[in-house]
Amino acid sequence: MHFAVLSPEEITRYLATCEPHDKAGAYGIQGRASRYIPRIEGCYFNVVGLPLARLQQSLTELGWSED
């Protein structure tokens, strides 16, 4: 995940939204901070949280089925 270099004014405006105050890393990629993220390398869900596609694949390989 690549985060843009922000000016002091951009940082002040972002902090004023209160969005970063309850986030690990002070940003949520699915929120207002997304405008500052020009590129992600790898799986989006690894940035957001649980990588659901990988979890499904692993569970299937272990023999799990929804049926």
Structure report:
This protein has 67 residues and is mainly α. Helices cover 36% and strands 0% of the residues. The chain has one domain. The termini are far apart.
- Structural class, judged by helices and strands? mainly alpha
Largest sheet: none
Integer count of domains = 1
Oligomerization state: single chain
Please report the total strand number as a whole number: 0
The rough form would be described as: elongated
Order of helices and strands: HHH
Radius of gyration: 16 Å
| Mean pLDDT across every amino acid position | 89
How far from one another are the termini?
Answer: 36 Å
Specify the number of helices: 3
Uncertain stretches of 5 or more adjacent residues: none
Helix residue percentage: 25-40%
> Approximately how much beta-strand content do the residues carry?
under 5%
